[in-house]
Amino acid sequence: MMQGRMADENRRPVAAVGKAPLAGVREMGNRRALRDINNLVGAHPYPCAIAKKPMLQKIGGDEQKPAVASRRPRTRMYAASLASKGEPEHQAIGTDAAFEVGHQKEPMEDGTDDMDVELCESTDDTDMHEEHKDSVNDATIMDIDKADSGNPLAATEYVEELYNFYRETEENSCVKPDYMSSQEDINSKMRAILIDWLIEVHYKFELMDETLFLTINIIDRFLEKKVVPRKKLQLVGVTAMLLACKYEEVSVPVVEDLVLISDRAYTRGEILEMEKLILNTLHFNMSVPTPYVFMRRFLKAADSDKQLELVSFFMLELCLVEYQMLKFRPSLLAAAAVYTAQCAISRCQNWTKICESHSRYTIDQLLECSRMMVDFHQKAGTGKLTGVHRKYSTFKFGCAAKVQPALFLLQSEGTT
């Protein structure tokens, strides 16, 4: 019964029920898409359903203006200074002391009040300023989800646990880097040609990024377990894309579209039969962490803008075509793509502590993969397989392919 449901191109697979919330589900009806929340990069804040009014403080029985929030963070040194002045400690929580005490402070002769003097004194204190700066850095370096704490769709309560699970299970999405040696009629060059063509099909159908990465993952996992003749390789490719669409997309291309895009090389029945074979071979497991899920998290840690995002994905998609990149884990590929893109844009090595903390990779661990990406970037516009370069040379993708390669990373290879 499960196979019958999966074989129908108009149904979505039951396996999608177990999918993690951040993998890119599109909106259904009035429900907002989880891919568009701030837990992922580039989304707008989730609007509050109720317009909350600020609390009013009462002074002498009359309502006054809302309490002014102090921009000064509360530190131990600041609290100690308040205690030494004999002022209530709760003033440092974030409300102006004039409203908390219940009367306005008398201005001093020079036009300033006590709070102004206190702020000026603390500003002149270099040691206190440095301690305050360090405390803010220590408090925020690990928390990139603080801005989304009030957004119920951002899953900030368990987003770290979610990515810990991704790391524990990413091994299941990997294949042996030499699996092609077990194939009798196909090789890595044929795989590269197929993937380059699928990237163009993916672009033509305007599918989501998640769909492309899952498509390639399905192909590799299937080819690792089944020997496929050369004439069936394209059939495996289009069927893998159909399955990925059923898992990721809301509007799924019909089988007839895939028949036409493959120049009628296969019939509708052959595609449905291959669909059942792939699903049974992979035990209906479509829930695997691809480089895409890690890329979104690492881009957020890097506080990326649109340019960095597009250049990072350009680097990552260049790796999809290359069979030799299968030796790297999905998380390492994503981290190296962000690092290489940062180097290409800023023209210097740029990998912050927060990027290292969330990716769990140091620059030394990324260099091998990053240098290979620079080499692919340098050669992307030449040769026969230029699908990724043409895609990212368009204005839709910010002409990301035209960014100059970070060649200094290759030059540093001889000195390390």
TrEMBL record:
Keywords: Cell cycle, Cell division, Cyclin. InterPro entries: Cyclin, Cyclin-like_dom, Cyclin-like_sf, Cyclin_C-dom, Cyclin_N, Cyclins_cyclin-box. The keyword Cell cycle applies. SUPFAM superfamilies: Cyclin-like. Pfam families: Cyclin_C, Cyclin_N. GO terms for biological process: cell division; response to gamma radiation. The keyword Cell division applies. Residues 196-280, 293-375 form the Cyclin-like domain. Residues 289-406 form the Cyclin C-terminal domain. CDD domains: CYCLIN_AtCycB-like_rpt1 (cd20567), CYCLIN_AtCycB-like_rpt2 (cd20511). Belongs to the cyclin family. Cyclin AB subfamily. This is Cyclin N-terminal domain-containing protein.
